[in-house]
Specification:
Chain lengths: 578, 578
């Protein structure tokens, strides 16, 4: 569908993305403004998220250039801003912890490998058109996962924020470790960190209103407020320089950033690295893809555009490969950054291209600015950003609407906090799929009778119907498969036990669009068991494809009749109905 | 249901199991014969499966006494034979490998802990009446798992069979390791092992027919053939003794077996042992339960009895706790042994009680007989037993009937062989649930029109129907949930794109018995999106419980109308139909 939207008659060569073929000058101005605004937001975020991933901060800047170009070439969203994001960075740190120490060259090369693997996996899914995988996670699970991750990130960042040593992969471990080292608090770091957090939080909360109140247009006010993080970062760098906070008061800073653009990296990984990182890379890529598609979709809807999940897979896959090529780590579409890009008026991925160019300029000339940036301020940036991801509305709605969804939310969030990100997402997926299987395993089954004087048969519990002692008619209102075939047989036995005169059992399969092997075998067993007790099994209203498959596999040979076309014709053929 | 079957007016006190309250003398004779036959089979099997689990062989005998009594008290099958089995033993070895060396006292105490944990988990599931968990595994997955495990066990047993050192947890590792140590073959061990295997295999294959041919009744012939393993075991012990194969030719034998009954064991495990063994214990317990229930069920059906999955959970749970108490390891209902028990005429769990008594006598007085039993002969016993579990009929049927089931079989079997038992079962469950989600994510959706001159509305692709340009009627034939809500929205958009004159969209939910939160939110978004484009969303034939839930959570406030009771009334109310 998106392809159709995008390919319209236009000027540029056909191998260019559709948006580029018909690019107009007005768009360039809007994209330019958006690109600038996003870059100002991106610089501190990229440094911060690299730190969160356990990598040198400048690696975050490396991961913020080529991926934007790659996404522009392959993606389908006009406004998604790709780059390092909080949750993927947390997952990167968690995936690499067992294999290498943070700060070692091995750690960096494994982070690059994660991006390569994730990029290839997304590419393959995209080429196979498997965008469907995004649907494996329910909204409750995604919300619970993001909320749990945000809290885990915030707790983890208390360590650089307060300048104390702490370690652990779960919320409890981190908090205990923080408490144990509470006497090692560094006053200057704590003061700087808390002040930065206060400023960031209040600018996020009040600055836009304040600017609007002094007469700035509300859209401009919103955008200016988004620049606050950069201003606070620069102020903190100034404070470190003026008061020598780093050398005199022990405030940890970013340190030397290699100037210049990243060199292209290519190296051949070991086989055991590939096998042990395959699954973590897939988790990071999948979660990133799901998050990214939902952001892209919600922004696209506002402008009446559409997102093609398969193009997104290819775009994000290319982005990750590009990140790896330039020595970066896993990237995806970021929530906050994409919203800013959209609000700043981005019209096409050209905004991202401009961002990438501006980021290159920063790397070529301005890295010195950030060398005395306190880590505590980066931690404050992260904490304020991720607390915005905490979503308590979804569990509230879920609780009102469907307790199973609320349980999936809570299980996922608590799983992330208590057992770590991988376990959390595993729990979430298991709870989603488990709930669904559990529901499907308790199918609705109705015993039918005839509405007097008609050809219609209805549930005997809800209608006044005529039944006959020798004929039991049951309608199964769910696909038949491994998780419910035992329940169906149990229910049939229970109904037969209540009606000892039964000689014919008619199963109405009007709602069954699939019967799997386990259920087909169960039906055959039922047929044989009933036969041994003198009861004949009949089927009615079997859907075409279901019948074809059963017949093709020779599964219906034992039945006395072909399945009946309707319950009415079955009841007539089975005799006693007038 | 089973409870109802079992509790009939009878003589014994009410706290006894129902079968014991009405126990008769004829039953005692039949149970006695079955108990004796099973014991003769059980002695070599229990030694062999303990070796397979990496434990001293006599531990297998310990695990073959109390569990039978516990199951007799709590289980619901009249013929299931509980004790050490091949697959659970393999899983035990695989679960413990990372934590302790085979043969260490720690290893044994961890094996006991596995039985405790699994026993408690089964008990809790049984008390909560969650017998439903047996349905989480489709028939294809169980068959693939058992087949893969059987092959993996057989390959692993080549090591003691040939008397060469080898190690590894996957089929490939084991085979490579065997090839590498091929020059270390011990001629006497190889000869003994292969001879035992040949005898076991030919007695299994031909002995019953041979005995029948010389005039033994076919039932007796079958039973006598089952005694062959014990005879071969005793012959091999004789051969070792006569030719001094152990001391002169390096043939490994069982070695000293402590005489007497096991002492009761109770010790308190460390917290990290509990957490790391919790999941493996659950896998072993679950797989054992599923296998056991399916054996029990297939035997019960032959005699018109019924199995209560919840009683089975309690019976197997008690069996595992009893095994742990006597220093044993995880047990469950065995396939071959239960079939023999049934064929030998067992009428009640008294057969198991008699088996337990006979096994105690063996432990008290006859252990000396088995001390010079060659490990190669035990390996031959295992290999011949497990090759009988290899099931190639199921994948063949699956291939004919449903490729997805065949894929689940192959994925599970290859996963077990290539990645180990835990990974294999994980892959199987994921493939089962994934296939089901994938199917449900592509719901059948029909565009409806009116059969001319009637009040009936049918799929426009299959019937000659009347439609109207302003009214689009779509029927969704599947529950709405996270995995298919995106697909439903896509299909709706596609139909709307084909019918630009649409002003009213009527969704018919007659087949929808559940809408989860993700799908409910998607419907709300659809309503809002359509509204913005001047299209009104209507619902019809919403089931009572679905409607209640949507209303309770305030999800339908935005709709123009209450949902219509029928498509006909909706079409009338929406105007243009005559």
């Amino acid at each position: 569908m998106t392809e159709a939207n995008r390919v319209v008659p236009a000027g540029g060569p056909r191998w260019l993305p559709a948006w580029l073929q018909q690019y107009r000058r007005e768009q360039a101005i809007q994209d330019g403004i958006a690109g600038l605004v996003v870059t100002v937001l991106l610089v501190p975020q990229s440094l911060a998220y690299a730190m969160l991933a356990g990598l040198p901060p400048h690696v975050g800047m490396y991961a913020s250039i080529l991926p934007l170009l790659a996404y522009a070439a392959f993606g389908s969203s006009m406004t998604l801003a790709v780059g390092p994001v909080a949750v993927a960075s947390l997952m990167t740190a968690s995936a690499l912890a067992p294999f290498a120490a943070q700060g070692s060259p091995e750690y960096l090369s494994l982070a690059i490998l994660l991006a390569v693997l994730g990029g290839l996996q997304l590419m393959v899914l995209g080429i196979l058109r498997l965008g469907f995988v995004a649907n494996l996670l329910s909204h409750s699970v995604i919300s619970g996962f993001v909320t749990g991750s945000a809290l885990l990130i915030a707790i983890g960042q208390l360590k650089p924020l307060l300048g104390v040593p702490a370690q652990g992969h779960t919320a409890v471990e981190l908090l205990l470790s923080l408490l144990a080292s509470f006497q090692k608090l560094q006053p200057a770091t704590v003061a700087l960190g808390l002040l930065a957090m206060l400023l960031l939080w209040s600018s996020r909360r009040f600055l836009a209103d304040l600017l609007a109140w002094i007469g700035v247009s509300s859209r401009t006010a919103d955008l200016l407020a988004k620049l606050a993080p950069m201003i606070i970062v620069l102020l903190s760098v100034g404070a470190v320089a003026v008061w020598q906070l780093d050398s005199r008061h022990g405030v940890a800073v970013v340190g030397t950033i290699p100037q210049g653009l990243p060199s292209l990296q290519l190296s051949w990984p070991a086989r055991e690295q590939l096998t042990s990182l395959f699954l973590p890379a897939f988790m990071i890529a999948l979660v990133g893809f799901v998050e990214s598609v939902s952001v892209a979709q919600s922004l696209a809807i506002k402008r009446g555009q559409r997102i093609d999940p398969n193009a997104e897979l290819r775009g994000l896959g290319a982005g990750n490969l590009a990140s790896a090529l330039s020595g970066g780590f896993p990237v995806t579409g970021g929530f906050a950054r994409s919203v800013v890009n959209f609000a700043a008026g981005a019209q096409t991925p050209m905004a991202g291209v401009i961002s990438a160019a501006l980021m290159s300029l920063v790397l070529l000339g301005l890295t010195g600015l950030f060398e005395r940036l306190p880590l505590a301020v980066l931690a404050a940036t992260i904490i304020v950003a991720v607390l915005g991801l905490v979503d308590l509305a979804t569990p509230r709605h879920a609780w009102q609407y469907d307790r199973a969804d609320a349980l999936a939310w809570a299980g996922t969030a608590l799983g992330v906090l208590g057992l770590g990100v991988e376990a959390g997402i595993g729990i979430g997926v298991a709870l989603s799929a488990g709930t669904f299987l559990w529901r499907a395993s308790r199918p609705h089954i109705a015993v039918l009778g005839r509405l007097a004087g008609t050809e219609h048969f209805r549930n005997e519990q809800r209608f006044q119907v005529e039944t006959q002692p020798h004929l039991l008619i049951m309608r199964i209102d769910e696909n038949l498969f491994f998780a419910n075939s035992a329940a169906v047989l149990d229910r049939i036995e229970a109904e037969l036990a209540k009606r000892p005169a039964t000689r014919d059992l008619l199963l109405v399969l009007s709602s069954v669009s699939h019967i799997d092997l386990t259920a087909a075998e169960a039906l055959e067993r039922l047929h044989a068991d009933l036969g041994a007790r003198g009861i004949v099994l009949h089927l009615a209203e079997v859907k075409g494809p279901v019948l074809d498959r059963l017949k093709h596999a020779g599964r219906l040979r034992g039945l006395a009749h072909e399945p009946f076309v309707s319950v009415h014709s079955a009841a007539q053929a089975l005799g006693q109905h007038p």
